[in-house]
Amino acid sequence: KPKILVTQQLPEAVQDYLNLHGDCTFWNQEGSMPRNVILDKVSDVEGILGGTIDEELLSCAPKLRVASTSSVGYNHFDIAAMRSHGVIGTHTPHVLDGTVADLVLALMLSAGRRIAELDAYVKQGNWQKGTSSTELFGVDVHHSTLGIIGMGRIGEAIAQRAVFGFDMNLLYHSRSPKKEVDERFNARFCELDELLSESDYIVVMTPLTPETKHLIGEEQFNRMKSSAIFINASRGATVDEQALIQALQQGKIRGAGLDVFDIEPTPVDNPLLRMPNVVTLPHIGSATARTRNDMAELAAKNLIEALNGGKAYVVQELKDLVPN
Ligand code: 8YV
Q: Ligand 1 in contact with 286 (CB < 6 A)?
């Protein structure tokens, strides 16, 4: 059986499955296995589940063949290094689409209708003091224009909710137009600049790659409507966080809903945390028991299948390393 190192907690049933197929070392404590412990344990490991895969780790793991992540995003994989060491990477698409899309809608509703802010307003007794009702106004979600940047599987799940649930008009920008998306959602593909200037809600849902790093910066915020609500549930670094802070401080946009940050956990002195018009969450896009369980199952299955030459969700950039 291949030696396997698991650097994060997994449900018991998933551990049982891995034990059937591999000689496994698990991590059953809070958080994830410390980096120095991982580097210590990888010398004879063929498969690893969890953690950052970079040149340092790869050079300590000469027998490594497969690295599996329990996430759809894999920006913690150094693709070039993995390629040069011949290590295949797998990830967990599909199983989290609906859960992440639900959260994006929640952020849109919450930032647009000021749910978190006004919840605090009621609980702090401000309602009693008598505010003029116009001060409580928000931005409609229904029949507004939604611009989605990155029309992958999660983008489509967001589109479905927004268009059929909230009668939103849909614009999107991605590498290329998608005929099925245009037809199914009565959507329109447009260039990024046009999407930014036309949308009431702007959602970033693109993977973090060298091309999408800081895709949204000062110039892009300048193009947005001053009434726009900006949502990010992809990766913090797709957005220039300093430019976002400035855009909010200068009233270039109306508000934001953020599940991801430049540094996570974000430092307590991040100015975003003191803005009532910004809803902040601790990277919980896929965080429901059912979905996290499905992701763990798929990550384990990917690892075993890839080690045995079976079918696995291998990341796009490394598919050619898989022998047919
Ligand atoms: C969590 C995510 O970061 O799948 C992703 O890419 O961002 C989230 O699901 C991660 O998977 C936690 O394990």
A: yes
Q: Whole-angstrom Cα distance, residue 161 to residue 56?
A: 42
Query: What CATH homologous superfamily does 97-280 map to?
Result: NAD(P)-binding Rossmann-like Domain (3.40.50.720)
Give which of 2, 105, 89 is closest to 50, Cα–Cα: 89
Q: Do domains 3-94+289-321 and 97-280 have the same CATH topology?
A: yes
Nearest CA to 166 out of 185, 138, 190 is that of: 185
In angstroms, rounded to a whole number, what is the distance separating the alpha carbons of residues 69 and 78?
13
Instruction: Tell the residue nearest (CA) to atom 6 of ligand 1.
Output: 73
The CATH class, in words, for 3-94+289-321 is alpha beta
**Terminus-to-terminus CA distance in the chain, angstroms?**
22
The Å distance, Cα 70 to ligand 1 centre, comes to: 7
CA 307 to ligand 1 center in whole angstroms = 23
Handedness of CA 149, 198, 103, 28 (dihedral sign): positive
The Cα-based distances of 5 to 9, 43, 69, 77, 280 in angstroms read 11, 10, 12, 16, 34
Confidence (pLDDT) at 164: 98
CA distance 276 to 136: 12
Tens-digit pLDDT profile for residues 269-316: 999 999 999 999 999 999 999 999 999 999 999 999 999 999 999 999
Residue ranges of domains in the chain = 3-94+289-321, 97-280
pLDDT tens-place string over residues 121-133: 999 999 988 777 8
